[in-house]
Amino acid sequence: MNKQLDILVYGSLNMDFVAFLNNLPKKGETLSAKEFSMIAGGKAANQAVAASRLGSSVGMVGRVGADYLGEQLLMALKQEGIITDQVKSTPNCNTGIAMVSVDEFGNNMIVTDKGANAFLSKEDIKDSEELLRASKAVILQLEMEQDVAEYIIRKARKNKKYIVLNLAPIVPIDPEVLAMVDLLVVNETEATQLSGIYVNEFSSAKVAAQEIHTKEIENVIITLGENGALLSFPSAIEHYLPPKVTVVDSTAAGDCFVASVTSFWIRYGDLGKAVKKAVEVSALSVTKKGAQSSLPTLQEYENFIVKETTQ
Ligand code: RIB
Fold first, then answer.
1. Containing domain of residue 184, as a range?
2. What is the pLDDT of residues 118-134, one digit of tens each?
3. Residue 309 C-alpha to ligand 1 middle, in angstroms?
4. N or C: which end of the chain has fewer CB within 10 A?
């Protein structure tokens, strides 16, 4: 394998079973969906697809079950030109799934079953070391075992790669390992849990980011939904607002953001510029339904920005 890669993404592939509803169900309530779709998802696979559509060369390390859904997910990645040699098929195991409900305002509720994702192992990480060496940056999230995530970070540090950690869903990480991360991306809920400071808007996010810097992480991003994203360095804070859009489905907007920021960071070497663009790409993604089905290409993003600036 001689090909150089921009980004190597480690983590989950899920088939999303998506119900579009007027409103999200309450406890004990049975609702009929207005529409149902099976859409390729999983945080890591979404991030891999998003980065690839923005023009980055991407590899993926993960696991699917030896079943129909796994075949579909693998095919979806291959069609995007993503290197999938290290997405292993797991015998006697289901592919990961997510049950997603989306209301008429684009809010969602997601329940996952890890399936084969739970079998991603340190051996798999060792087996994919050639891909790691060929990559400039790695992205990982936490739809995998904690010790495997920590192992990936240690390996990536040893190989001097940019490490982007999306602490979603949040699990405790060894502080020594956390300090090896180059860029940490969390949403309001994750920032609250990590910092112990309740984050619900810009000023609380600012305080939480300062607290997170005490964990020796230099670059921190807290995504704030419709309020954009805060980029924090120990000595400066920047706030990027998204363009106004009509939200159809916010599923995978966070994944889109993580991938975009990494992709543009590698391309321009300027984190502020990368966050500005990532906020815009993510805003565009919420105007479409589904996870991978909503992720914009570079061309779609550029057209969107031209339209925005000429309005
Ligand atoms: O972030 C959105 C993703 O989370 C969905 O695609 C679902 O599969 C879950 O992993």
1. 5-23+33-310
2. 999 999 999 999 999 99
3. 31
4. C
